[in-house]
Specification:
Elements (H helix, E strand, L loop, with lengths): L1 H14 L9 H11 L2 H9 L2 E3 L5 E3 L10 H8 L7 E6 L7 E6 L6
Antiparallel strand pairs: 1-2, 3-4
């Protein structure tokens, strides 16, 4: 049941991108441009959920779904405790595409 709730919360985060509690047709179209077609959306988003050390469901820590730019992500990755590390996010420059920001070793992107 907790896994289903975590998947549902992840879907809500992806669909309601501006976090206003309402889902607009534009937000649905945006979600489908990344995770569509519709019949594949839930299985694709379910892949973003894993289990922690105690077996509890959690969203993958490497997936960011907010309006955060690559420079902000790079600054956060500079504080990472393990290297290499990465973040998957929506691309700033290409709609419907994902981008990977990686930190190979301390201070090196």
């Amino acid at each position: 049941e907790k896994e289903r709730e975590t998947v549902y919360e992840t879907i809500c985060t992806v669909v309601d991108r501006n976090k206003d509690g309402n889902v607009s047709p534009t937000e649905i179209a945006d979600m489908l441009s990344y995770f569509g077609p519709l019949h594949q959306t839930v299985p694709k988003i379910t892949c973003l959920v894993s289990k922690d050390e105690e077996g509890e469901p959690i969203r993958q820590p490497w997936f960011i779904w907010t309006e955060v730019g690559s420079h902000q992500i790079e600054n956060k990755l500079l504080n990472a405790k393990q290297f290499p590390t990465f973040v998957l996010r929506a691309s700033e420059s290409q709609r419907s595409m994902f981008a990977v920001t990686q930190m190979l070793k301390e201070g090196k992107t």
